[in-house]
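Dear colleagues,

I hope this message finds you well. In preparation for our joint manuscript, I am sending the Nitrate reductase gamma subunit (Thermodesulfovibrio aggregans) sequence together with its predicted structure, so that both groups work from identical material. I would be grateful if you could confirm receipt.
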Amino acid sequence: MEESLILFAIASPLIMIVGLSFKFYQISKMPFNIRWEIYPLPLENGKRRHYGGSYLEEVDWVNKPHKKSFIKEFTEPLKEILYLHRVKEFNTYGLWLWSMALHWGIWLLFTWVILLFITLIFDNFSISKFSFIPYLSYFLGSFGSLALIIKRISNKELKLYTSGIDYLNLVFLLSIFVTGILMILSGDFIEETLSYINGVVHLNLSLSELSTFTVIHFLLFEVFLVYIPFSRFFHGPVKFFTFHKILWDDEYQKKDSPEEKRISQQLNYRVLWAGPHILPNQTWLENAKNTNLHEK
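The corresponding structure tokens are as follows:
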């Protein structure tokens, strides 16, 4: 039993890393998205970022280097990741507070696990002064996931947009946080968590030294790591492409560039669906050139 737990504990983060890498590779090979080109762009420099301008306003812009604000390029996604800015601003169902609680529960849980490993590496590092982190993580995560479940069930309109897998994911997260709370209540959770991590790292895990809730909690967390790349939890990492390749991409296409070749290839894809504005079984280029849709 101990050997199986050790093997899975070591394999789970590796599976997550490989899975995320494979998913990123798959997405990078997908056809180009249609760019939004909605200004202002946060990565623009100077005043243009505030009034919605772009480098295309400059005289002879094609011969000038396109300078970007790399600070805003990274701080803007962080605002979304840590504050859920767009959920607060655009979601009409009042999910922001509960989503914030859930996401911060997850971030703090990962922070706590990282601190546990740091404690094992550095002998003079005292983790006890950070013991408030798991309390906060488990409380926020339980509160957020349970509130989102209730919110989605009780709101008739929101219920229509909620699939079974959405409920399953929320219940799964709730089980991770609840078992964390039970682990805290069952004894000296700091000592037990350190004992678990140390046992995995040194391949010498002893279940007799751990409470049942500690084992279940870590096992669920490891299942979560494996599940991330192959589930809707992947929406977090994939936001890189959403921001940089759809929302913010306003680079012009250079002749004979790899991008131009990919676009030319994609324009020759055949449209296999029908619509009032579409010529079925024709290429995208032929559809784009068609100006007599009413006569098709």
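For the figure legend, we might mention the following. The domain at 2-247 is CATH 1.20.950 (Fumarate Reductase Cytochrome B subunit). Residues 97 and 144 are 8 Å apart (CA to CA).

With kind regards,
E.M.
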